Amino acid sequence: MKIKESELILNPDGSVYHLQLHPENIAETIITVGDPDRVSTVTNFFESIEFSTQKREFHTQTGYYKNKRITVISTGIGTDNIDIVLNELDALANIDLKTRTVKNELSSLDIIRIGTSGSLQENIPVDSFVASKKAVGFDSLLHYYKSEKFQDNEFSSAIHNHLSNERLAKPYVINSDDNLFDLFSNNEKIHAGITATNVGFYAPQGRVLRVKLSDEKFVDKLQSFNYQNQQITNLEMETSGIYGLSKIFGHRALSLNAIIANRATGEFSKKGKELIEELIELTLNKLV
């Protein structure tokens, strides 16, 4: 079935609408970062860059690190942007843009997020790393997709009941790709984690400036949650969308977080730039 022009929007040059990419511009291994400036921080480690473009907050570079072809793309902040990036990356891999039809043979991408996050637990210290075994989405994105078979519904029900706040949509819970997780989990600096994703940086993450929260105990409840000896380790704004859409589309995903803040102790990293560069180099070397 041909996909309508209003549903799959292409630029005049035939590239996908937001990312401004053609299929040949992306590798099978994708690194996502939030900040457009961080793309160059990653590709500074590359031996060569074959392609570069930027439209809005979506900055993309494709090149080679130790003979492995890798694409680095910035998503901006939030799962609303993840919805755009993941759909358009999947379209590049699995839709014939000229005929506007889904390909008979589908491809799977490896999608690795390198980001920053705040820890919720004292035992996940500032300046460490978290590889997310699960993502807990408070952002509602996956509720718009037919996605139940990919979700850990028992875990979702347990945390929904623990939070006891009917104003919140029931969270969805999605696992990482097992093989990618295993690749990164054998490093002593990397903690296995369960990452919560929410829709904002301030009230949705329990921060108060001038306006009171609807649930002043939200972060406390996340910190105290325990289901079958599993705790929420950190809180950020993208991982659940990446995991959810990757599962739906048949891609493999892993989120890696540099812990720059600890909400339990009130600490903030004094070497955030060096920490993210360390995580980038670690990630690239694992991928090759």
UniProtKB/TrEMBL annotation:
<dbReference type="Pfam" id="PF01048">
    <property type="entry name" value="PNP_UDP_1"/>
</dbReference>
<dbReference type="InterPro" id="IPR000845">
    <property type="entry name" value="Nucleoside_phosphorylase_d"/>
</dbReference>
<keyword id="KW-0328">Glycosyltransferase</keyword>
<protein>
    <recommendedName>
        <fullName>Uridine phosphorylase</fullName>
        <ecNumber>2.4.2.3</ecNumber>
    </recommendedName>
</protein>
<dbReference type="InterPro" id="IPR035994">
    <property type="entry name" value="Nucleoside_phosphorylase_sf"/>
</dbReference>
<dbReference type="GO" id="GO:0004850">
    <property type="term" value="F:uridine phosphorylase activity"/>
</dbReference>
<feature type="domain" description="Nucleoside phosphorylase">
    <location>
        <begin position="30"/>
        <end position="268"/>
    </location>
</feature>
<keyword id="KW-0808">Transferase</keyword>
